[in-house]
Every structure is written in C-alpha cells, then in structure tokens.
Amino acid sequence: MQDSGHIRLADLGEFGLIKRIHERFPAPDGVTGIGDDCAVLPQRDGLQTLVSTDMLIEGTHFLRGDISPYQLGWKSAAVNLSDIAAMGGRPTGTFLSLALPASTEAAWVDGFLRGYAEVSERFGAALLGGDTTASPDRICINVAVLGECPSGSARTRSAARPGDLVCVTGTLGDSAAGLRAILAGVERDADVQALIDRHYLPMPRVEEGLRLAAQAGVHAMMDISDGIGSDLEHILEASGVGAEVDPASLPLSAPLQRVCTRQGWDAAELAVCGGEDYELLFTVDPEAEKALDVPHTVIGRILSGRGLRWLGDARSFSGFDHYRSV
Amino acid sequence: MQDSGHIRLADLGEFGLIKRIHERFPAPDGVTGIGDDCAVLPQRDGLQTLVSTDMLIEGTHFLRGDISPYQLGWKSAAVNLSDIAAMGGRPTGTFLSLALPASTEAAWVDGFLRGYAEVSERFGAALLGGDTTASPDRICINVAVLGECPSGSARTRSAARPGDLVCVTGTLGDSAAGLRAILAGVERDADVQALIDRHYLPMPRVEEGLRLAAQAGVHAMMDISDGIGSDLEHILEASGVGAEVDPASLPLSAPLQRVCTRQGWDAAELAVCGGEDYELLFTVDPEAEKALDVPHTVIGRILSGRGLRWLGDARSFSGFDHYRSV
Questions:
Q1: Which residues, in sequence order, are CB contacts of B271 under 8 Å at separation 6+?
Q2: Of A130, A134, A146, the CB nearest to B60
Q3: Which single residue of A97, A267, B5, B45 has CA 20 to 30 Å from B52?
Q4: What is the pLDDT of residue A5?
Q5: Do the chains contact at B131 and A142, CB–CB below 8 Å?
Q6: Which of A42, A131, A132 sits opposite B48 (nearest CB)?
C-alpha cells in the first residue's frame, strides 16, 4: 500500500479506496472476495454458517477526536467477531461498509484498516467484501461477519435450564469505567489507561467460545455488550427461566477497583450496567462446570421461576438502550 | 404489529424496535433468525453461499423529504438482492442495520419495513438479523444479503472472452432520468412518474440472473449500479479484455425518449452514465446468445485488446464515483 500522506478521499476516489482495501486484504485460496458483486464461499459438510452484523455511528458509538482510527478499526471488527464467539463459532470472514466524509485523510483510513486487520487476522477472519460510500459528515461503519460451527453446536440464548450456574469469562465493568474516564477527562495513569484500552480495544473471546461450545454441559451463551443486567435478561426471557445473581461475586479487575476507589465510582454498577465488556455470559450444568478448562467466574444460578433477582442488594440494575440513554 | 400512530423511537426503545422488526419477519423453519447473536443457516451439498452488502446514507443516497419510507425500504433491499442476481444466484436472507434519529416516527419505520418486506418476499429472501441503533441526525442503512447457487455456477466479472457479445436486460437510463426529474422539480405526468418509479423502486433481475446462469455460454455478468460506462470497464479490467459498444444500440424506454425530447436531455448520456438501473450486464458466446430465453439487447462486442471504445460517437462517457461526483 502506498504511503497515504495527506491524500483526501476526494483525491483517492471511491475505486482508489476499494483498491486500497483490496490490496490490504487479499482473498483466501478458493474464495472470491473483494472485487465482484458477491463473495463466494465454499461449503463443507456438517458445518453451519453463522452471520451477524453491527453498525457504529460517529456521535452515537464514538467521537472522532477521542478514538484513534486504529482503535476504531479494531473495535469495529472485534464487536462483530465477538458475536461469532458468543455462539461458540469460528469466524471465517467479514464484510465492511464504510461511509466517510470526502475530507477524510487517507492516513485515517490506513490506520482504521490496520486495526481492523490486526484483530481479524488474529482470529482467522478474512475481509471478503463490503461497500464504500461518501457521508455528508459523520463516519458510519457497518460490519457483517460470517462464521461456522459444527451443525447443531451453536449456543443460543434459549438453552438455559433451571439448576444451571450462571458464569462469565474475564472481568466486568472495565470498558464502562474506561468510557467514564474518557468522558470525565480523568488523568491517564496506568490503571486508567488499562480500562480505556479495554473500551477501545475489546478482545473477542473466540477461543473461549470454541472451548465452551465443545462441552455438552454448556447450555445458553451470549456476549456481554449491553451489560450483564440487560443481557442476562435476554437469556432468561428466551429460555423461559429466572435467575439469582450475587453482585458481590462479579469479577472485578484490580485496575477497576483501584480507579473506582480513587474516583468514588460504584464498581458493581459499572460491572452490571456498563456494557461493552465483550466477555462471554453462559449457563452450565453444575457437574460440567467443574470440568471447564476456560477461566470463568460463577455469578449466579438459573431458577425455574421468572425474572432476575439480585442477592444481598436492594438496588435494581438496568442495561443500556440506544434510544433511551444518552 | 400494533398501529404505529406517532410513537417516536425514543418512546418505543431499541428493543421495542427490534421486537417490531422481529414480528414482521419471523424466521423460516430450521433457521435461527432475529433474536440471537447470529443467524444460523443450514447448508446443503453442492451449493455455494453468496454474500454482499450495501450502505445507504441520508444526504448521499437519498433525501428524506423526497423518498417515501416504503420506497426507501424497497430500494435498500432491492439493490442488495440485485447483487445476488448479478452472480446468477438465488437470494436466501438479508441482515438489516438501521441507524435512526430518536425523533423518527414509528410510522416511518413501518413504511420502511413494508417496502423492505415486499421486495424481499417477492424473491424469497428472509430477514435473518441485523442491528438497530440511534443516529444523531441522518438515517443510515446497511443491508447484507446472502444467496446461494450451485457450486461453480456463479457468474463473476472476470469471465468475459474475446468474441462474446455484450448484452443488457431491460432498458437503461430510466432511473437516472427519474432522479434528474426529482432534482429539477419536473412536473410528474405519467412518463415522468414511470421514470421516478424506476429510480425509487428498482426491480432486481433475480429470475433473469438465474436463467442466464443456467446457460453455459453466458460468461461474465454484473448488475448495473454506476452506469454501464463505468460498470463495463470493471468487466473489461477483471477479464483482461476490451470492448466496443454502439451507443445507438442502447435500449431506451418510450417514457425516457419522450421525457428527454420534451426536456432537451441527452438520453444516451443518461443511459451510459446515469447508473442505478439494476439491470444485468453480461457477455455471452454469439451462438449461445441466439438461444437465450431472457429478453435482452446486444449493445457491443468483447475484443482481445484493452479499453472500451464507443462506436460512431466522439463523446467519452464516464461512470459515477461517490467521492468525485456531487
């Protein structure tokens, strides 16, 4: 790819932009990728195709002055790869739609593609197509992702059973605390930077999802994007069950605890309501849980009734809604 | 679906919007559609999956005051279905990402979904998933479409051979003339309305694409979105061949000819440069062309050299570029 300097898209042109993307992402063997009307993918027996899509809008999901193009490219791909991980699948390819103002610097595009490629390649997902177009002002990004899994092994939200343990991978609330630190202009020491990195550079739990889906006792699974308060409700509703969760059991990182203490923030609230953790939330048979080879924390239990009950805390938590929150 | 009245998205909420979409588009048997992290699709032997995606941004692709929500919904699905038609495939499902200002009326969403559904169902494409999010101001739409075709039968842009005839289905320039009529505020008699309808309600040539792909003599194929001037260049470049085209042979509809005569517009220029025809452009062996059961017009011939030559006319035509045109 040639040096981008300060070429604007107005100079590069749409086909110049596509060529740039194409050079960066050659098609895998046996696949027709970028450059035709459609991508053509081989199919193999006993596998199912997984597809998901996520849109990111400047001013809603990110502010151009805050997030670097590399981080935005990473995050755009990562949140989609996370949807494949949430099913226990392996990502195979992505489709990127990019609407950019004509004044966008080509260097910005290169940075975006670098971040997009780095997380995509880490998990074996080729960029197989997309669309590029002009935007009058705001950057608008859409990614569609394809994945695969053995037929019948995809973990849905509707498979939780009474008696299951409710578990999460990793730690919760870091991303939400990172966002709060950005918005509040908190000084960026190492702890704060660690939280901000989790917000801008989320790591999709693809390997964890694959290992969990290989265990018969793992029932329902999803990724945490709106906050476990809201996301667990989706599992309960889809499965027709209830749950009790102990807020004291939520896994909190050391940086989160230190920053919350310093800033007077409520770590449990960030962990429950914050969202954008992109960790996996799953339910598992208690016997199978003992044998899991994926690091996780048990936070509650599935009940035969309905509704989500928070133990030992009278607060009621709620998740994130794009049209209700600001 | 309940009556939408004047509910705003701010009242409906994100999950209310998703529920609305979900009710309108139930998943087909055996498919996990809307409501989980991913759609899960069965695979069958001997078939290939086709995927494409297209983004439409308010202010770039449409003006909210001009296009009705029904038309916009139709067009958003149709331009994607057209990409599957362009490969000679059968559309199977779509994924809709929709970023809307919180002030959007639910009635607008219902109208959009009605148009989206009407053209999708006409061609057997289920809505299998998507994303809904808030936009600070402009409407932003992305559709990803999946299709299938027998393994090895997809028609790409790179298969044109010297000696092939260059053909198009339908008529060219109607959509561009319709857009010009809208922008110029031309009075909408029946002819003008017919052109505007072709602009707002393009008909993907799915059946034509399937029938053409069933003929071994049909080599390269694509749909006409940027204008045949620009689009044919893509086939020539991908196939490493040249072509000569006779502008006098371009198929022009009666309404287009009458409106151009009245308005003093150049019909050939609209047909070549206008774009958004969503007709099929294909190359075919001359012997096979005689046996085609799809109505079409021969407009030129593939040559062994390079470049596109316009016969009998010194004008040079060019296509559409999002970052260069206004």
A1: B172, B173, B176, B228, B247, B250, B251, B252, B256
A2: A134
A3: B45
A4: 52
A5: yes
A6: A42
Q: Tell me if residue B207 falls in helix, strand or coil.
A: helix
A45 burial type by CB count under 10 A (0-12 exposed, 13-18 middle, 19+ buried): exposed
Chain B hits for A50, CB-CB cut-off 8 Å, are: 38-40
The residue count of chain B comes to 326
Question: How far away is chain B from the Cα of A262, in angstroms, using its nearest Cα?
Answer: 33
Mutate to test the interface with B, among A20, A51, A326 (most CBs of B within 10 A): A51
Domain A9-150 has CATH 3.30.1330.10: yes
pTM of the model as a whole = 0.87
All residues of chain B having their beta carbon less than 8 Å from the beta carbon of residue A140 are 55, 57, 99, 140
Mean pLDDT, rounded, for A173-182: 96
The CATH topology of domain A157-310 is Phosphoribosyl-aminoimidazole Synthetase; Chain A, domain 2 (3.90.650)
Model pLDDT for residues A231-243, shown as the tens digit of each residue:
999 899 989 999 9
CA angle A91/A92/A97 to nearest 5° reads 90
Selected from 2.60.120.1440, 3.40.50.2000, 3.50.50.60, 3.30.1330.10, the CATH number assigned to the domain covering B11-150 reads 3.30.1330.10
Q: Comparing B156 with A106, which gets the higher pLDDT?
A: B156
